[in-house]
Amino acid sequence: MTEPIRICEVEIRVRYTEVDAMGYVHHARYLMYFEIGRTELLRRNGVRYRDMERLGFFYVVAGVECRFRAPARYDDLLTLTTTTEKLTRVRVEHSYRLERDGELLAEGHTLLACVGRNGRPTGLPEELLERLGAGTV
Prior knowledge:
Elements lengths: L6 E7 L13 H18 L4 H6 L3 E11 L8 E11 L3 E10 L2 E13 L10 H7 L5
Antiparallel strand pairs: 1-3, 2-5, 3-4, 4-5
C-alpha cells in the first residue's frame, strides 16, 4: 500500500458570486474552501466522500476556527494547503493555509467527527483508516 497523503494543495479561482459588496471574498466562503481542501485530500488517498456516505459514514464538523489575515478578491488565484494533523477512528483534525502569491490570507482548523446514519459517533472501517493513515500522523 502506498504511503498516505497528509498534505494537499489545491488552487481556487475566486468567482464573482463569492465576493461581497465591497469586493472581498465573503467570510463564509472560507469554510467552503476548507471543505474543498479536505475533500480533495480524501480523494488523493483513494477515498471519495460520497462512497463513505454510501457505506453509512459521515464526517460532521464539530469545531471550526478561521483567522483572517488579508482579504481575497474576485478573480484572485488562491492556493489552499490542507494538512491532516490528527486522525483516529472517530475524529480527524485538519489545518488550512490560504495564500495568494505566497501571502497568507487566512488560516484555519477543523475538527470532524465520524457518525453513522443515526447521527451517533461511529468508527471508520480499518480499510479506510489505513488509506488515510491513522496512527501515522
